[in-house]
UniProtKB/TrEMBL annotation:
Organism: Trichoderma semiorbis
Lineage of origin: Eukaryota, Fungi, Dikarya, Ascomycota, Pezizomycotina
Pfam families: Zn_clus
One biological process term in Gene Ontology: positive regulation of transcription by RNA polymerase II
Segments forming domain Zn(2)-C6 fungal-type: 17-47
Protein name as annotated: Zn(2)-C6 fungal-type domain-containing protein
Keywords annotated in UniProt: Nucleus
Length: 553
């Protein structure tokens, strides 16, 4: 229990005494100009400087009005100001006299200007009322005295709908689409650079909103989905400088990706334009954010090439941030990923080119120039030597990949079925620590499987690790990696195309259903519709099953 002390009023200390008494913790009689204690001790007596704060509605408080009546009366004074009222009725000068302990303090309010000047209303209306939904609602600045209900309605989603939608699309692009475009590279500055450019160029801001709104409308996103309105292309984009115009067109093509099926990605208008990556031998010279956008569209091109069995349109000048001449420096994660893409592009060029034309030499490694002349040795010997070189590079990367590119947990197919009784598909379980490491391994398995499908007949492979030369093993690894990891940025276009590619040869019903479930998750997360691809796969599986029944019967 606390101790209760009975102290006489004459001996109670106060907080308004002089500084000397307060420092000595003695009772002060608060005499002016000197207290009695300071006079007896012959010391200087000083009082602290007090700042008097004028409280609102002192007159109403002295009259004893209730707080609810005061708040209601003050709320009733709120009104909107338009051009007419502000110009005709300027606020006059006012003086308020307030007394505090006998000393008068004057508060002078000088002549103030209207909140909105002539012509400011049009600017504010254009900023807040740019959406079609607001045109049907009366502007809050049109009347002088508005009811309290309309004042509350000012803060609803009816007003400034376009501004809210634009903010939602920008947030979605920054935190969802940008990491997906960067392939999960945490060291990329694309997201920051594109937003800084959007602050300066309205055409880039419009292109970002257009791409994000299309993706939002086609995916099950928490940002509102259909509530976000799709914006039209800003006509000022055609008047921008070439670099800014190329960035804007690449962003608009990003939105077009979500409107096409993966098998139709090759029909993107961006690939047919002069702004595409077709004649681009080096990406690093463009700088951010254009470099990352061009690399993303090159991945779209590689994915389309894998599904259509056609050579990629993009030249293979993937410039690496690492200097090939300096072998002592470790490769960055981005450089390793770019090297894997170069390997995949080289395989697609070799296997899908007609008569092995337009294939570059191996110096520098995996580099293709659009102006290079086709080589003239015999097709068989050149194909075998090129195939052997690509296969050797693939396996060398797999055995010497850095630790961050290796799975932290890897369970084989048979063991996976024994661990999880509900796992009927028995896909292997490789668990990775980052999305970019997952994608690098996916690209390796796709490249190796592509080469195995077209292996020269007389070429013999090493028998020490036979699983590396198995088509089924690479397909199982691709499926297990995609279904057993859960990164927001893992659904890269190449991964989606790789899953559709290996799904054609899946024969077990449980594995087929597992892939169908994975495709539905991809559609829900990215907005890329795979309905036609799923129907084609089911038709292919049914045809293969019926053919198997005929052969067995």
């Amino acid at each position: 229990m606390p101790v209760i002390r009975n102290i006489p009023d004459a001996k109670r200390r106060v907080r308004t005494g002089c500084l000397s008494c307060r420092k000595r913790r003695r009772k002060c009689d608060e005499g002016k100009p000197q207290c009695g204690s300071c006079q007896e001790r012959n010391v200087v007596c000083k009082y602290p400087d007090l700042t008097f704060v004028i409280g609102p509605k002192l007159g109403a408080q002295e009259k004893g009005g209730s707080s609810s009546e005061q708040s209601a009366s003050s709320y009733a004074n709120v009104r909107f100001v338009n051009n007419n009222s502000s110009s005709k009725a300027p606020i006059q000068s006012t003086e308020v006299q307030v007394s505090a302990k006998g000393e008068g303090l004057s508060l002078h309010v000088g002549e103030s200007r209207p909140l909105l000047g002539p012509g400011d209303e049009n600017i504010l209306d254009s900023f807040i009322g740019s959406s079609s939904s607001q045109s049907k609602t009366a502007s809050p600045f049109a009347a002088i005295n508005l009811p309290q209900s309309e004042w509350k309605d000012y803060f609803t989603t009816t007003h400034a709908a376009s501004v809210k939608n634009e903010t939602a699309t920008l947030l979605h692009f920054q935190y969802n689409l940008a990491p997906w475009i960067e392939a999960g590279d945490v060291g990329s500055s694309f997201g920051t650079e594109i937003m800084l450019l959007a602050q300066k160029r309205r055409s880039i801001l419009s292109a970002i909103s257009s791409a994000a709104s299309i993706q939002l409308a086609r995916s099950n996103s928490a940002y509102g989905g259909p509530a976000v309105l799709q914006r039209d292309t800003d006509p000022s984009l055609a008047l921008e400088e070439p670099r800014v115009r190329r960035i804007g067109l690449a962003l608009l093509a990003l939105g077009e990706v979500f409107t096409l099926n993966p098998s139709q990605w090759r029909r993107l208008s961006f690939f047919q334009s002069e702004e595409s990556t077709r004649n681009t031998n080096s990406f690093s010279g463009f700088g951010e954010p254009l470099e990352t956008l061009l690399r993303f569209h090159s991945r779209i091109d590689l994915a389309a090439s894998l599904l259509t069995d056609q050579p990629p349109l993009t030249s293979l000048g993937f410039a690496m941030n690492h200097d090939p001449a300096d072998r002592t420096l470790p490769l960055s994660t981005k450089s390793i990923y770019n090297a894997c893409l170069i390997q995949l592009a080289s395989c697609l060029q070799l296997l899908n080119s007609n008569n092995n034309s337009n294939i570059a030499s191996t110096s520098p490694p995996f580099y293709l120039s659009a102006t290079q002349e086709p080589m003239s040795p015999t097709a068989g010997s050149y194909f075998s030597s090129k195939w052997s070189s690509l296969w050797s590079n693939c396996q060398q990367w797999y055995h010497s990949r850095p630790v961050e590119m290796q799975p932290i947990l890897e369970i084989r197919s048979v063991e996976a079925g024994q661990i999880d009784a509900d796992n009927d598909s028995s896909f292997p379980i490789p668990v990775y620590t980052s999305s970019i490491a997952l994608q690098c391994n996916i690209v390796y398995h796709i490249s190796s499987r592509l080469l195995l499908l077209r292996k020269p007949r007389l070429l013999r492979l090493s028998s020490r690790q036979r699983h590396l030369s198995s088509l089924s093993w690479h397909a199982q690894q691709i499926a297990g990696t995609a279904t057993r990891n859960d990164f927001a940025e893992q659904w890269d276009p190449i991964l989606i195309a790789g899953l559709l590619w290996i799904a054609r040869d899946m024969t077990h019903p449980s594995q087929q259903e597992s892939l169908i479930s994975c495709f539905r998750q991809i559609s829900s997360s990215t907005g890329i519709k795979l309905d036609e691809e799923i129907q084609a796969l089911r038709a292919r599986w049914n045809s293969s099953q019926a053919r198997g029944y005929q052969l067995s019967g």
